[in-house]
Structure formats: C-alpha cells, structure tokens
Amino acid sequence: MAILLWLASQESITIMILKLIFFLKKLVMNKISLILIVCLISTPVYAYLGPGMGGGVIAAIIGFFAAIFLALWGILYYPIKRALKNRKSKKISENNKKNDT
Fold first, then answer.
1. Angle formed at CA 7 by CA 9 and CA 28, multiple of 5 degrees
2. Model pLDDT for residues 25-83, shown as the tens digit of each residue
3. From the CA atom positions of the chain, what is the Rg in Å?
4. What's the confidence (pLDDT) of residue 81?
5. Considering only CA atoms, which of 21, 16, 19 is closest in space to residue 5?
6. Domain range list for the chain
7. How far apart are CA 86 and CA 81, in angstroms?
8. Host H or E run for residue 82
C-alpha cells in the first residue's frame, strides 16, 4: 500500500496503472512460457502406475473420510443416545412411582 501511495505521489494515476498492467502481462507471459517449456520439452518417465495404485489411493481417501465420520458419530451420537435413554428411564420411574401411590 505504501508503494502505491509513493508511486501515486511521484507519477500520475494513468502512468501507474499502465505500469501495473505491463507488470501483470509480463508475469502472465512468464508463467505461460514456463508451462509451454515444461510441456514441450519433457523426457519419458519409465514408471507404471497400475490399477493397484489407483485402488490404494481411493481406499485411503474413503478410509480418511470414514474415520472423520465415525469420530463425529462417536462424539455426538452416543452422548445424545445416553441422555435420551436416561430421560426415558426417568419418565418410566416417575410413572411407576405415580402408579404405586
């Protein structure tokens, strides 16, 4: 921000905007040229990633999400279930006390 204020005090706004646009174009062109170089000048890789590797990755992803789901299930469901069970047993015991008297 301080650089922009300094630039604004030194030059007009249009010149500052033109310099910024030129800088961004130069940055984008450098990235595009790098991507083209990497894609066009590539050497062959002698490796095989078969279906076993893909299956392992899929199993790891499913296992990760299953672990998160089961952890949340254990943290949230069982205390709620226990509270509802205690509430139900209290109601039953109150009803039994009313019926006994």
1. 155
2. 777 777 777 777 777 776 777 777 777 888 888 999 999 999 999 999 888 888 888 88
3. 33
4. 86
5. 16
6. 1-42, 53-101
7. 9
8. helix 51-100
CB neighbour list of residue 19: distance below 8 Å, 6 or more residues apart: 7
Average pLDDT over residues 82-92: 83
Q: Residue 68 corresponds to which tokens in the numbers above?
A: 């998160």
Question: How far is 14 from 20, CA to CA, in rounded Å?
Answer: 10
Q: What number of residues does the chain have?
A: 101
Question: What is the model's pLDDT at position 35?
Answer: 75
User: Residue 101's pLDDT is what?
Assistant: 60
DSSP reduced 3-state for 12: coil
